[in-house]
Amino acid sequence: MPETTTTPRTKTQPKTERPKLYKVILINDDFTPREFVVTVLKGEFKLSEDQAQRVMITAHRRGVCVVAVFTRDVAETKATRATDAGKAKGYPLLFTTEPEE
């Protein structure tokens, strides 16, 4: 009977890294009405009335405020849509994104 040699198979699983996260940042301006900012925050970012008020006030007092953290594509899409909502009404509302550290 021939001798059979078996070698154990090792499973190598590729290590997948978590995608980098990006912050969506609301930049304060002195022209966009507070109520409109709250409406955009509630509509685009699904914040509650209370959360939207707090984000808006923080941006008003400090100049900027992190709204939420998402993967890059989602963050850029939401920031663009929120900024475009302001432009559509003639306001200089601005949302930006930056990598989270």
Order of H and E elements: EHHEHE
Q: Could you say how many structural domains there are in total?
A: 1
Overall strand count: 3
Looking at CATH, which topology would you report? Answer: Ribosomal Protein L30, Chain: A
Helical run tally: 3
Shape: rod-shaped
GO molecular function, one term: peptidase activity
Family: Belongs to the ClpS family.
Domain Adaptor protein ClpS core: 18-96
GO biological process, one term: proteolysis
Question: If you had to describe this structure to a student in words, what would you say it looks like?
Answer:
Belongs to the ClpS family. Pfam families: ClpS. The protein has about 100 residues and is of the alpha+beta class. The protein has a single domain, classed as Ribosomal protein L7/L12, C-terminal domain/Adaptor protein ClpS (Ribosomal Protein L30, Chain: A). Helices cover about 45% and strands about 20% of the residues. It contains 3 helices and 3 strands; from the N terminus they run E-H-H-E-H-E.
Q: In short, what is this structure?
A:
With 101 residues, the protein is of the alpha+beta class. It has 3 helices and 3 strands.
